[in-house]
Every structure is written in C-alpha cells, then in structure tokens.
Design a protein that fits this description.
By secondary structure, this protein is an alpha+beta fold. Helices cover about 35% and strands about 25% of the residues. Helix 2 crosses helix 3.
Length: about 300
C-alpha cells in the first residue's frame, strides 16, 4: 500500500477511536475506506455551513475544490476534504473556532499564477500565513516545472544571500527539470517549488501595499506522525517525516525571502517605493506540528 494511504488509515484509526466518525465514502459504486463516510462528511459540511459560514464560502470558492466530488475522465473520486489525511481538514479542525482566521488565502505571485495558502490571520501587530501538510510528503514529487520561474530560480542560485541552489535542465521551450539544494542538503520531500511560490505571493502582497508593513510570520504546519499509532510502514513514514523536517530546517527562509523581494523589485519593477529591509527584517519562518499550532498565533 502507498505510504500516504497508510498514513490516512492510521489517522482514521486514531480519530474513530476518539469520535463517532464512520469511514468509507462511496461514489460511482466504489468505496474509499480511507475517507469519511458519505453521512459523516455530509455532517461535517453541514456543521461548517451552519457554524463556520465564512470557511464554508472560502472552501467552496477555493482553487482546490475541497468540498466537491471530483471527476477525472470516467473516474469519480470523493471530495478532497473527506480524506482523513486532508491537510485542509487538519487546519480547519485546528482553527475553525479562532476568530478572524481565514482559510484558502489566494495571493498573486507576479511571476505567474496564484499562491493558494491554507490559512491566514492578520492582527494589529502581524500577518500570519500558514501552509499545512499532512499526507503530501509521502507522495512522489514532480520535478518538471514551467520555465516562467526560470529567471527567479537562476537569480536564487546566483545570489550570495541564500545557500539555496536551483539546478536547471531545460527540456523544451516551455518546460524544465529542477533539483533544489540547500547548502549540502538535497531537497526531496519538502516542496521547495511550492514554498517559493508562496513566498512570491507574500512578497507581492506587501510590495503592492495590500498590507501595512508589520511583522510577517510564515508558519509551516507539518503533521507529526509520531503522535499517532502506525503499524505498517511506520519506519519509512517516520524517516520521511524526519527528512522533511531536516530539509526544511536546512533553509534560511528569511534570506530566500530577501532574494525574492529583490527579484520582484528589480526585475519585475514591483514596489520600487518600498524599502526592502522594512519588509524582509519583519519576516519570520517557523516549522511546527499539529500540537504547537495555536501557540504561535
């Protein structure tokens, strides 16, 4: 069985032992046992719609289409958020009762596309951006990307401010293969491509003046599988979790953020009236697990 599904089942066993939640979503005549049952998911959505209407609206409009049955060709799949290993469901359950916390925050990247962050909250003192990961580190990553990021990746590699290197092999006029390295650490489990996109979104928002200059906290919420019982595949899952943490901790994200802000100002001509240090000096990155999340807000 794939590791991400093994983790789904371990989370399911942990949750169903504590709560009256049933598993086994049935769609198109097939049962998906690592998902909430149709009735349990319907109750989950109805509670969201009734008691957390803002979250319901955001997930309904979000780019991930978290609440919808998914159709791919002749195949029909359960809604993403019905998965026991859903990152969106994890952060929602953690933060649904926190006033002012928003889900599915969209930020244009300027370089191309939209950064879809899992959570966001703004206070008088700071802006907190959150990316949540549960089962994703246990799925193989694609290293083929669009070349619209090429100039930025080359600038990152050439900068003496960050130890991150992007090794690029051009495939054709549209695609390239990229391997990320931080110092001596090759990045395999941590999603560096997505993280750079998120930092582009955050930098763009501040350079455009969408937020007042204040503290910027970027929280990377990574589900800790050590906190639940895992039988099959335990050693490999825990190894990948540790690898993800080590890869993440190898990166000085503040320095990487500085290179990204500089790229947007000098190459894209964005926010030239803004003083770079006022934005970069306020930036802080933190890796946490599901038990530590509320303490950092």
């Amino acid at each position: 069985m794939e590791l991400n599904k093994i983790l789904d089942y371990a989370i399911m066993a942990d949750e169903t032992a504590k709560n009256p939640i049933k598993s086994g979503y049935v769609t198109n005549g097939k049962s998906y046992n690592n998902y909430l049952s149709n009735d349990s998911f319907a109750e989950f959505v109805e509670d969201m719609k009734t008691n957390h209407s803002t979250a319901y609206e955001m997930y309904g409009k979000g780019g991930g289409k978290e609440l919808e049955v998914r159709v791919s060709g002749k195949n029909v799949y359960p809604p993403k958020m019905a998965s026991f290993g859903s990152s969106s469901r994890m952060i929602y359950n953690l933060m649904k009762d926190v006033d002012g916390f928003l889900f599915e925050k969209k930020l244009p990247t300027t370089v191309g596309g939209i950064a879809n962050l899992d959570g966001f909250i703004e206070t008088d003192e700071k802006c907190v951006f959150v990316e949540a990961k549960c089962r994703e580190p246990y799925t193989k990553k694609d290293s083929i990307y669009e070349r619209k990021y090429e100039d930025l990746y080359r600038k990152i590699s050439a900068s003496d401010k960050t130890s991150v290197t992007c090794k690029i092999e051009v495939i054709d006029e549209r695609k390239m293969e990229v391997k990320f390295i931080s110092g001596e650490t090759e990045i395999h489990s941590f999603d560096m491509k997505q993280m750079i996109s998120h930092l582009l979104g955050v930098a763009t928002a501040f350079l455009k003046g969408e937020f007042d200059i204040k503290k910027i906290d970027f929280i990377y919420l990574l589900f800790n599988p050590k906190l639940i019982e895992i039988n099959e595949g335990k050693e490999e899952i825990l190894s990948i979790y540790e690898q993800s943490c080590n890869e993440c901790n190898s990166v000085d994200f503040k320095s990487l953020f500085e290179v990204i802000v500089d790229h947007l100002q000098t190459t894209k001509g964005l926010g030239k009236d803004k003083i770079k240090s006022n934005i970069v000096d306020n930036f802080r990155f933190e890796l946490i697990d599901q038990t530590e999340f509320k303490d950092v807000l």
